[in-house]
Amino acid sequence: TGGATTTSTAKNIQSRNWYLHDTQWVKFNDDEIVSLKSSSNKQQD
Amino acid sequence: MSILPGLTELTPELYLDVNKTHQLTLKESTEWKIDIPTSSKLTIKIRSGIAEIFGTELANDIEYVFTNWKISLLAVEDVILEWKCPDISGNKALIIQQNTTSKFVYNLHFALDKLRTASFNGPRIMIVGDTNSGKTALCRTLCSYAIKNMPYQPLFINLNPNEGIFTPPGCLSATPISDLLEVQAQTWGQSMTSGATVLHNKQPIVKNFGLEEVTKNKPLYLNCIDQLAKDVNERLQNDVIVQRSGCIINTPPLSQFYDNATNQYDSYDGLLKIIQCLNIGIVVILTNDTDEEQEKEKINKLFDKLKSIIDQNSIIRFPKLSGRFQDADDTYKRSLQRAAIREYFYGTPRTVLSPYAAGADFDEIVIWKSMELNVNMQQDMINPFQLESVPIEANVLQHALVAITYADRKASSEEVSKAPILGFGLITEVNEKRRKIWVLLPVPGRVPNKAIILTSYRYLE
Ligand SMILES: Nc1ncnc2c1ncn2[C@@H]1O[C@H](COP(=O)(O)OP(=O)(O)OP(=O)(O)O)[C@@H](O)[C@H]1O
Ligand SMILES: [Mg+2]
Predict the structure, then answer these.
(1) What is the distance of C-alpha B432 from the center of its chain?
(2) Was B31 annotated as part of a binding site?
(3) Which residues bind ATP (chain B) (predicted)?
C-alpha cells in the first residue's frame, strides 16, 4: 500500500547537493538515484 | 452547483471546533476546488475510491497535508474522504463542480503513449496559453500519467522563470521524471539531497535567467533556452529511456511574448525559436472559444505562425483546464516562489534539510547581474548577454537569492555567462562596517570560490 506517501516516517536531517556540471548531467542516468523505496511503489494495484 | 451526497447529514455547527474532521463524498468526475487560506493547513485522507491532484493519485488511508495552495481534487471514481482545516468552516462552503476537461487530458495522454510505443524518439510537446489557463497543471498531469503504468522517464522542461519547479524560481530547467511526483509539493518534488529520501530525488539541469519578466531581456532568455537545448539534446542521445519518453514543456504566459516597444505581439518569434531549438513536434494551445475579436485574432495569428514550422495536425486547440483558478494573482504567485526558495534550503516537513550559513569578506566575493533592457536603450549598441558587476552593498544584496556558477570567481563576464550553475545561495546579511557578507548555502562548507550572479528574487526569513 501507499508507503510512498506516509507523513510519519523518520525525519532524517540531510542537505541538498550541488547541481551536476552540465557535462555530468548529459551522461547521467536516473536509475543511479537511490531511494528508500523502489520506484515500483505505485500507491495501489 | 448541485446538491451533493454527504451534505445533508450535516447539522449546523454551533461551536467551531478547529479539529473537527469532516466527511465528504465526491461523485465520479467531479472536482473539489480548494483554495487553502494563507498560513492554514488542510489535511485530507481518502477513505475509498480514486482521487487525483494534478494527475497524481492519493493513496487510501494516508494523511496528506497541504498548505498555501490552490488545488483541485479530481474524483476519478466515487470517493469518500475525510478532511480537516480550521479555516474552512464546513462542507457547505466548498466548491464542488463537474470536471469537464479530464477526458481530453486522458485522450492527449493516450495519444502521447502511442507515439512513445511507435518510435525511439518520443513526442516533444509544448503547452502554451494565457496566464492561469492551466499550462503547468497540464504538464504536471501529463508527466504523472506518463510514469503511472509504464517505466517511462519523460523529460519535463520548465521555461517559465516565475515558477520554481524542482528548483528555486528564476531559472529554466530540465528534469527527467523517473519516479512519482510528490503530491503535497508545489515544487512537484525535491532535487538531489545528500541522503536517501522516501521518494527518490530528481536531478534537474538549471540555467539561470534571474529576472522576473521574460520581456526584461528576451535575447538573454532565448539564449538560456539555447544553452539548455544543447544539453537536453545531448542527454537524449545518451539516454534511451528519456529519449523514448519524450519531452513535456511548460512555458510562460503568452503575454510574455508581447513586445512592449511596438505594443504588439512579437509575432511569436520567441516561441518559434524555442520550438526550433528544442525540436518540438506538438504544440497544445489552451484557449476557450470567445467572441472577443482581439482574442480570436491573437490565437489565429499564433496558429498561422506555428503552421509555418510544424505540421498543422500537431497543433492542438485544447480547452482551458476546468479545475483552474482564474484568480491566482501575483501575490499568490510570489508566495509560491517564496515557498520554492524555502524548500530549496530547508526542505519539507518530511525531508528536513539543514542549510549552512557561511561568512566571507567583501574582497572574497564577486557578484554579477544580468542586464535589464529598456526601450530607451539603443538595442544595437549593447550586448544583452553582458553581465554587469554588482557593488557589494546591503541595500542591493540583502535577502537576495543568488546563483552560484561553476566559473571561477575571477572569470570574465563572458565566461561567467556561459558557465553551468552549481546551485543557489541566499544573502542573509551584508555588514558594510566589518565588510563581511553572510550567505546561506544548501551544502556545508565555505562560500565557493566561484562567480556569483544576483537574481531578482528575494526571500525574507
Ligand atoms: N486541476 C487543475 N487544473 C488546472 N489548474 C488548477 C487545477 N487545480 C488547481 N489549479 C490552479 O489553477 C491555477 C492556474 O493553473 P496553472 O498554474 O496551471 O496555470 P498556468 O497557465 O500555468 O498559469 P501561468 O501562466 O501564470 O503559469 C493555479 O493556481 C493552479 O494551482
Ligand atoms: Mg504556469
Answers:
(1) 36
(2) yes
(3) 31, 70, 132-137
